[in-house]
Amino acid sequence: MGKTPAWRAEAITNGLIRSGRATNAQPEDGFIRLKAKGGGFYWVSFDGFRLLRGEAFWNADELQPKFIEAMERAGIADRR
Fold first, then answer.
1. How many domains does the chain have?
2. I need a labelling partner for 63 at 20 to 30 A (CA). Which of 10, 32, 46, 80 fits?
3. Residue 14: inside a domain, yes or no?
4. How far is CA 16 from CA 1, 2, 65, in A?
């Protein structure tokens, strides 16, 4: 059985989905892969400390820390 994503990875994933930026979250090679609205994929590392965007995680671009933090906040907004 594969490794379970950390709470931060789940929060970022939820934030991407709630904001309408992504859909269809699937685990893949230590990442959560989401279909990006504008094409390509978002890749959230299982530890929640990397968020990439591109067709494949090995050549995807790493996104800005402030964007990652914003998606994390959006993903936990209703938990408070």
1. 1
2. 80
3. yes
4. 26, 23, 14
User: Residue 18 domain-assigned?
Assistant: yes
Q: What is the pTM of this model?
A: 0.90
CA 6 to CA 78: how far, in whole Å?
Answer: 18
Does residue 58 sit within a domain? yes
Vertex 18: Cα angle to 17 and 19 (nearest 5): 90
- List the beta bridge partners of residue 59: none
The pLDDT tens digits for 21-50 are: 999 999 999 999 999 999 999 999 999 999
Does residue 72 form part of some domain?
A: yes
